[in-house]
Amino acid sequence: MTHLTIDHVSMDFPTPQGPFRALDGVNLKIERGEFVSLIGHSGCGKSTVLNIVAGLLQATRGGVVLDGKEIDTPGPDRGVVFQNHSLAPWLTAYQNVELAVRQVFKGRKTRAEMREWIMHNLRLVHIEHAMDKRPDELSGGMKQRVGIARALAMEPKVLLLDEPFGALDALTRAHLQDSLMEIHADLGNTVIMITHDVDEAVLLSDRIVMMTNGPAATVGHVLEVDLERPQDRVMLAESRLYNQYRQAVLRFLYEKQRKVEPLARRDGGTRAASAGRKAAGHA
Ligand SMILES: Nc1ncnc2c1ncn2[C@@H]1O[C@H](COP(=O)(O)OP(=O)(O)OP(=O)(O)O)[C@@H](O)[C@H]1O
């Protein structure tokens, strides 16, 4: 049985002008432990796919099956990390993770076991030194580390990452990518990650799912990335294979799916609706 199946998923959003078809017939099968990236131009529907897998949105047609069970609501078997952290601002890093751990393990772990588990997850992402700080006392990268610790602490079957490092500077981003590579090598979670960064996709993924431009976006091409992991990024830069993968993704994005859009329309229309929805979701 396939671990996770995205089966003929289509999504129509209601708009004042009538239904807007964001996705049309998205199919994808993901095996346990796979690291899959979704890449595609802005607005093609990556977050919509991820939100359907998270159970935050219901597909208009088709559906998602995880270990034989159809997904229709959010659940602790899917840990989500967004680009902008969604930590409770009044709680410390420790307490943010604790909140999730209590929800999932209440009645199954003793207080001492919960504490050990929270600390274990904070250590995994190298943030234990800041466990008593509140989000406003943490840098962007540190907040994302806490968000990842919180998601991992729920022991999800699938980790869903929506541009988790998108708002970070290049160096912080590289450190977090390294941490994620280590964690994935250690724990073998199934990961679906949205990224706009071709290097990040090639560095981290077993497969890169490239989406066509919307409306009615779908899977355009899937690239298998056969590189040893965890990877040393300095060595990789010189790898011929790595550069071939990079070029394949770049070619898809900038030749096959080249976006020709008048500047004035770039941020208009349905994108505004999307931005509003995202802002609300991240608050
Ligand atoms: N609630 C909504 N109502 C109407 N249209 C929506 C809604 N949510 C998303 N859309 C539209 O669906 C399409 C896909 O949006 P989505 O946010 O999934 O794209 P994306 O690939 O994640 O974009 P980005 O890379 O910019 O984050 C866009 O055209 C967007 O405007």
From TrEMBL:
Q: Which InterPro entries match?
A: AAA+_ATPase (IPR003593), ABC_transporter-like_ATP-bd (IPR003439), ABC_transporter-like_CS (IPR017871), ABC_transporter_ATP-bind (IPR050166), NO3_transporter_ATP-bd-like (IPR005890), P-loop_NTPase (IPR027417)
Q: In this protein, which residues make up the domain named ABC transporter?
A: 4-238
- Single GO MF annotation: nitrate transmembrane transporter activity
Keyword Iron set for record:
no
Which keywords fit this entry according to its UniProt record?
ATP-binding, Cell membrane, Hydrolase, Membrane, Nucleotide-binding, Transport
Q: What class of enzyme is it?
A: hydrolase
Q: Where is the composition biased (Low complexity)?
A: 270-283
* Location relative to the cell: Cell membrane
Family matches, as PROSITE patterns: ABC_TRANSPORTER_1, ABC_TRANSPORTER_2
Membrane topology classification:
Peripheral membrane protein
A GO cellular component annotated for this chain's UniProt record is: plasma membrane
Q: Please indicate which superkingdom the organism of origin belongs to.
A: Bacteria
Q: Which Pfam families match?
A: ABC_tran
Similarity section: Belongs to the ABC transporter superfamily.
Q: Which protein are we looking at?
A: Nitrate/nitrite transport system ATP-binding protein
